[in-house]
Every structure is written in structure tokens, then in C-alpha cells.
Amino acid sequence: MNAGAQYGLLLAIVFIAAGALGSLGTALFFLLMAAQLAVGAVIVWRRTGLPWATLGDVVGAVGALAAATLFARGIPLVSLSAESIVFFIAALTGPLLLAVEAHVHRQQWQRWRAWMSEMSAIDVLLGRHIPDLRRDSA
């Protein structure tokens, strides 16, 4: 199983465990996701210089923060609240931005994918899955 799938499985397990604690547990999960995505955006930009991937992390962080706000306030995720709309827009936009990145900067994206082949879920959690493409290309 590749690192992305491992990480997704880990997130699913943590999400279910957080949900067992109620809406505040789920809010904490999304708050931690927002923090990880925000830090990830900085790391992606510094190490790769890939603008669309960086923006994808920023959008993801905003969406996760919106979800955290909803759960902290006890509002259903599927509602007509501004936070819910932001969450769903982010959930749709983030993957599209990564697809744009893969198309626009193919060579760097392929190098990143090759780098990822040796990674695990722990590497993704710690940000080690993001290669230093700026240094490697210099």
C-alpha cells in the first residue's frame, strides 16, 4: 500500500475515533488537519516552489478550519451555512489544484511521485514526503 493510501487509512481511523468523542472531538480533528495543511503549504512552497500544490494545501487548510468551526458550534456539515459552503468548495477545489499542478509542472510532479514511492504514512504525517525540488534542480 502506498504512502497516500496508508495516510488516508490513518486519517479515517483517527476521524472515527474523534467522532466517538462527539462534535468537539471532530472539531479538534479538523483543527489539527487545518494546522497540518497550513504547515504543509509552507513546506511545499519552500521545498518545491510549486504554486498550485501550495495553493491546494492553503485551500485545504481553510476548508478544514471551516469544518472545525461547524463541528465546534454543533452545526451539521451539510447545511447552508457559510462554513459548510466553504468546506465543500475547498473539498472540490483542492484536488483540482493538484491536477493542475501535475499538468503544468509535469517534470517536478513526476520527481515528487518518484520520491513518494519510498515513503510511508509516518513520512506524510511528518512532512518528509515533500522533496526539496528547488535544491535538487540547482
Q: Mean pLDDT, rounded to whole units?
A: 92
What is the number of helical segments per DSSP (H or I, 4+ residues)? 7
Q: Main beta sheet, described?
A: none
Q: Multimeric state of these chains?
A: single chain
Low-confidence stretches: none
Q: What level of helicity do the residues show?
A: over 70%
Care to count the β-strands? Answer: 0
What is the straight-line distance between the termini?
A: 32 Å
Query: Which structural class is indicated by helix and strand composition?
Result: mainly alpha
The arrangement of helices and strands along the chain is HHHHHHH
Radius of gyration: 16 Å
Q: How much β-strand is present in the residues?
A: under 5%
Q: Any idea what the shape is?
A: globular
Q: Layout of helices and strands, plus pairs?
A:
Layout: H1 3-20, H2 23-48, H3 51-73, H4 82-104, H5 106-116, H6 121-126, H7 133-137
Helix pairs in contact: 1-2, 2-3, 3-4, 4-5
Tell me about this structure.
It is built from seven helices and no strands. Helix content is 81%, strand content 0%. The protein is mainly α and 138 residues long. Helix 2 packs antiparallel against helix 3 (51-73) and helix 3 packs antiparallel against helix 4 (82-104). The model has no long low-confidence stretch (mean pLDDT 92).
